[in-house]
Amino acid sequence: MDYDNYYSSYQQPDRQNLLGYGWRPLHRHFDAQYFWQLAMQDPWALAQKALDVCSDIANAVGCNEFSPLANLLNLFSENTRYEIDEFWNSVTPPPTTPFKTRFPPKPQFSNR
Predict the structure, then answer these.
(1) By CB count within 10 A, which of 20, 90, 107, 108 is most buried?
(2) Residue 33 class from Cβ within 10 Å (0-12 exposed, 13-18 middle, 19+ buried)?
(3) CA quadruple 77, 80, 86, 89: dihedral positive or negative?
């Protein structure tokens, strides 16, 4: 059996990919104006989040029970990545979505 001919049916170079359709990955870019607005509205919450992520990174790198190489590898662990992403998502504006939703946003009701 010729494997080149078998897999050639799966390769379609003229097929559009997601980027060709206009989809962009949901990256959050740093916006200084948004960060400044956060810092002015609630500086204590921002300081708490910054100290929390610094504490998590220091905890990942500074374990005395493990070797320095294990501590370095722990810096790239899923838990550390989650903590850094949580901080990054809190200090950057939400990304724009490429798709429009079918449902309108729910109305906000105030309890008066």
Answers:
(1) 90
(2) exposed
(3) negative
Is the whole-model pTM more than 0.70?
no
CA distances from 71 to 64, 77, 110 (A): 9, 10, 49
HSE-CB at 98 with a 13 A cutoff on CA atoms is: 10
Q: Determine the Cα–Cα distance for residues 9 and 15; give it in Å rounded to an integer.
A: 12
| Between 93 and 102, the higher pLDDT residue | 93
The pair of structure tokens assigned to 40 is 């002015």
Are 36 and 92 spatial neighbours (Cβ–Cβ below 8 Å)? Answer: no
